[in-house]
Amino acid sequence: MNGTVLIGLFLLALVAGMPLATALGVASVAVLALAGFDQLAVPTNIYAGIAKYPLLAIPMFILAGMIFERSGVAARLVRFVTAIVGEWTGSLAVVAVLVSMLLGGISGSGPADAAAVAAVMLPSMVARGYPKGFSAALIAAAGSTAIVIPPSVALIVYSVLVPAATVPALFAAGLFPGMIAALCLLAPAILISRRYGFGRDYKAERPPLGRSFIDAIWGLLAPVIILGGLRTGLFTPTEAAVVAVAYGIFVGMVVYRSITLRGLFRVLVDAGELSAVILMIIGIASVFAWAGNTLGIFDTAAKALVGLEASEWLMLLAINLLLLVAGMFLDAVSIYLILLPLLVPIALAMGWDLVWFGVMMTINLAIGQFTPPMAISLMITSRIAGIGMEATFRWVIWMVLAMGAGLALMVVFPQIALWLPARLGYL
What we know:
The chain is mainly alpha-helical. Helices cover about 75% and strands about 0% of the residues. The protein folds into 2 domains: about 1-40, no CATH class; about 50-425, no CATH class. It has helices spanning about 1-15, 20-35, 40-50, 55-70, 75-85, 90-105, 110-125, 130-145, 155-160, 165-185, 185-195, 210-230, 235-255, 260-295, 295-305, 310-325, 330-350, 355-370, 375-385, 395-410, 415-425.
């Protein structure tokens, strides 16, 4: 009964147009009141939900991503990758995917990655004959891989909720699947561009490789410093986020001199606002998860699903479909907080590795970031392109299928994710 009320009120609040955090809070408070719990459990669990040391990395990586976006790193990476790829039919589409993958190793946030690449690349792509809808769809899809490629904010949240999966293990496990998911997008990018002749009639001078590399070296060093420091044990994932911020400020204010003190203040304000929203959702969703666990709702549901005695592959298919649909409507952090109490017991009952399960889950949610109707990354790139989201629909489906193929590859061959963390001694 309490489970029906909890889920029912949550869905009803969402349909009524309440913000996600409010919907979670209303449902949780109502069910706890019906069950006779002291309402002091609400603020206690909100605090407990966000008072976790690893979560300090979230505002830091968000800030680092914004600093690198506004310091001109993205523009220099585009020039460098263009110098490598060259100028040919569809070349800018390839550049967009590769630059998004590189920036994913800095920002850890899909929407931030998509916004940075779109701001730099959309004008050039449109000027060379690429439709706005295609360009926005491709950049949104490529940018979404940032939540899989380390340092990933989403994987940090997963590690907090699933302590058996450590951040270093998740980061190592996400590297190859994230790169494969991004590289899978090259197939539709090249085939569609060749089919319609995008960029065929535009010939531009190829940037000099040496000079472009020198200009981009500070941006290329960022993921090396972050991941190298983690691997050598020089700093923890949370400390790595602080190092990324310090490095970004140095590059933006000292090396490139593209960020002023006033600009830095604006970046701090914007990063603070976004971080506050994410942490508020985490805090209130913690109450929702606590209510579900305390009342035995999630355990009962998990046992019921396992009791169906479905095959492992059927269960995997069902979970992936659930995650894909959920990703269309909610952000990754919220889905972790809502669904992990249900899914982790199922994963344990099935004998699945929780690190592999976390990466699989995250790729699903990355696909959801550019799949309508909500599609936060697609919303951002469409807004920057000055078009309605419906203009991207005919192109998005090909991106979804391509990244879905990368996901299927990782599901069928778990060692794609597990080989590197095992090799590095994290498993």
